[in-house]
Amino acid sequence: MYLLLVSVVLLLWYLLFRNKRRRLYQLAEPIPGAKDTFPYLGLLKNSYNAVDNVVSDIENISRETFKTGGIQKMWGGPLFFIALTNPADIEYVSKTCLEKDLLIMKSVRAFTGDGGIFAPVSIWSRKRKVIIPAFSPKILNSFMDMFSRRSADLVDKLKELSGTGTFDIWPVINNFTLASIAETSLGIKNLDGINDVVVSDFLKSVEEIFKVGSTRTFSIWLWPDWIFKLSWQYRHFTKHSNKIINITNNIIRKKRNDLKHVDLNII
Q: In the record, what terms sit under GO molecular function (predicted)?
């Protein structure tokens, strides 16, 4: 009796769920669908090892999308995705559909919060007038010498590693990015002035944050916040997130103290 009652309730819930989304199903119907997907599960059948196979999966989806005219629909359980390969279509959609998917952005916003380009449109649209002047051609041109110098340093570093066999490029790019951000945003031209252990800890924490974020993005069982907060990944994420925030705050605090002793001639 109880089993029958539960079955009826689940059936009614599913019918109501389908009815509520009937417009979505109508619009999705004429779009070509991805091959090799399970009914109801869709792409979720690959989620158990998605982190290891994400690059090959994206390559396969891209090839299939090219064959279907540059557009293809995919289902991940109840989640609906559209793959695009036509640059003109991608440009139009990126300028029109500004809001980011909450499930996909959870792993990013857990670290960035509602800041920068990862903020919801309701917040980002109000703040962009403040941010846009910082990326004006005049300001960007003032950093061209730095960009050129840092890029040359990166090329020299890669030349040293060239011909040594397979190597991990991540630490090199990570160090390059940190040095560039430190100089453009904080005016720190040389990371050698910062304790090597601090820099090493910062880079290691950034790497760990990316790992946890990637794992959560491609592990559907970690999408619900309450499950994620019970996992070891959350504790690992919090540890390294706090470390990054503390190091950043210390650098900013030191820079502010240095500026107090600088004479500013304002015209």
A: heme binding; iron ion binding; monooxygenase activity; oxidoreductase activity, acting on paired donors, with incorporation or reduction of molecular oxygen
Whether residue 83 contacts residue 65, with contact meaning beta carbons closer than 8 Å, is answered with: yes
**Domain annotation covers residue 181:** yes
Q: How many beta carbons lie within 10 A of that of residue 240, not counting itself?
A: 21
Residue 8 lies inside a defined structural domain of this protein: no
Helix (H, G, I), strand (E, B) or coil at 87: helix
Residue 203 vs residue 110, higher pLDDT:
203
Return contacts of 99-107, CB within 8 angstroms, 24+ apart: 103/79, 103/223, 104/217, 106/216, 106/223, 106/225, 107/212, 107/213, 107/214, 107/216, 107/217
| Angle subtended by helix axes 196-217 and 102-112, to nearest 10 | 160
Task: Specify if 3 maps to a domain.
Answer: no
Cβ-in-10-Å burial (0-12, 13-18, 19+) of 222 comes to buried
Rounded distance, CA 84 to CA 64, Å? 10
Q: What is the pLDDT of residues 71-89, one digit of tens each?
A: 998 887 788 888 999 999 9
